[in-house]
User: Fold these one by one.
Assistant:
Number 1:
Amino acid sequence: MNNPSNKRPPKLRAPAYPVVEAGGMVWTYLGPKEKQPPFVRYKYMDLPDNHCVVFRVDTHANWVQTVEGGLDSSHVSILHTNGARPEWTGKSEEKVGSFADTEPVLEIEDTEFGYHYAAFRRNHAGQMDNVRIVPFIMPSGRIIPGGALQGRNNATLALEIPIDDEHTATYTVRYGSEPITRESRLVEMGFDDPEIYCERTQQFLFTRNDFHRQRRDLMDHNWSGFRGIATEDLVISTSMGPIQDRTKEHLIGSDLAVARFRKRLLDSVERMERGEDPIGVHADVGLVSAIDAPLPQSGHWRTLIPTHRVAAAA
Ligand SMILES: [Fe+2]
């Protein structure tokens, strides 16, 4: 001890929070003790270990930017053109599901856990035949259906966790009915390149300062100038700067899910200011899923995900 008086403050304690280890991660609760909800398991946690791959990637961007980029369903057909629309160069006849339709029609609905939305796409004959349903789990999670681009029998849970105002830790869990290797996931994300992703520090290494090292010389056959789906996503999140100036943006129809995210977030803040619980805190995330499927012949799209509970009207 370096204190000659040898007197310790009698009630000196470090803050501590409860944790649960599950699904390849350590989960904690930071709220008031008396309001701690029971730990709820995501569906993937019941799969064999070799059916799930967990990654963390830290980026220099506010968490809202990383959430909003992923929530825009139409971005898949545009940002990920090389994977989703390989026919764009004119050198391939390959069609990947309905992703050739870059103008999906969106519908949205509030649920107990946040909201879910459907993106309807037309097939190559111009008929609406595919629906892609993505749930947004308040305040920062979503499940991405595999579909034609990333494998029909799997899905990806993405959680955007703020580190501070300008940095985000994105946790992704790829899971499915078949074993998945860490190596294949690294390649898909574009993180097998040590100049893009550092596995030791879990950091995304490209920055605005080096123009994210975009390969403009390859863009006659590489639409974005990058390799890897996650790399393309993270370039978008970070290229607008750590905190985007929202006074200069122009939301359009395809930003429906982005606008709803902001509304649900502000509604949640208002609830907390009234002393109520935030949206989704008691929802059973084990019942939440995503799907990319043929459009049902009849009935509402939500019948494809019958475990989602629609929110009661305010
Ligand atoms: Fe994306």
Number 2:
Amino acid sequence: MLLRDVDAGDVDAYRRMRCDPVMMADLGGPMPPESVPGQLRHDIDLVARGAGLIRMIVPDPAEPATVAGTVTLVRHEIDGEPGGEIGWMVLPEHQGRGVAKRAVRLLLDEARDDGRWSRVHAFPGVGNGPSNGICRSLGFVLLGERETPFRGEVFRTRHWAIEL
Ligand SMILES: CC(C)(COP(=O)(O)OP(=O)(O)OC[C@H]1O[C@@H](n2cnc3c(N)ncnc32)[C@H](O)[C@@H]1OP(=O)(O)O)[C@@H](O)C(=O)NCCC(=O)NCCS
């Protein structure tokens, strides 16, 4: 597996992830297709500004055109302190094979090597079994549950954090 920066060619992968009601069930529901190019531009700009890492998951480096999903780490102030929030998405045909867990581990390793990240937070929905499993098995500490506002809605989430 390798991770690469998001780029302008990722519009189809973005559409397949962001417009799918099942994929977006814990993320505020599907986006309208017309908002996808703007989201992609926003993410490319975010990386260019150094405000975060938006990485595309390529499961087999011998097939660089096949993208399985994304892992993201974005700078945020969380509970009044600077930190990073990590998130992940894996397309249905790649799910259930450990792709998300491996990609999250790789991104945490990159962030650790980068040296500019310290505490990384994750806020998976309380009912998101795989995402909470990823946090637990990669050494995140469970800090509690909270209501997390996201895209105009409020979600009941777990709060996990890891020190890099
Ligand atoms: C969440 C998501 C990224 C998981 O991707 P994935 O590649 O299928 O996940 P993995 O195969 O790496 O599995 C992760 C872990 O969850 C476990 N798991 C899988 N399904 C599970 C379930 N229903 N309940 C509990 N654990 C589960 C796996 O066994 C694995 O743990 P292990 O390695 O210790 O055995 C994917 O389902 C997705 O994109 N969903 C939609 C978007 C989303 O919800 N993103 C997260 C928002 S917080």
Number 3:
Amino acid sequence: MATTRCAQCGSPLVEITLNRGESTMTMQSCSTCDTRSWRADGELLPIHRVLEAVGRR
Ligand SMILES: [Zn+2]
């Protein structure tokens, strides 16, 4: 099993996957330096797109 590591500090990242209708969003969070990144269907997602998606109800 591959572990994704933080680009900033090299610590293992915690992954949280959310299913949002037709797409899957994955949040990778570093507990060491608090870096977070989001992916949707394997593509890196800019933070403003994440906020749009989460804010939409
Ligand atoms: Zn880190």
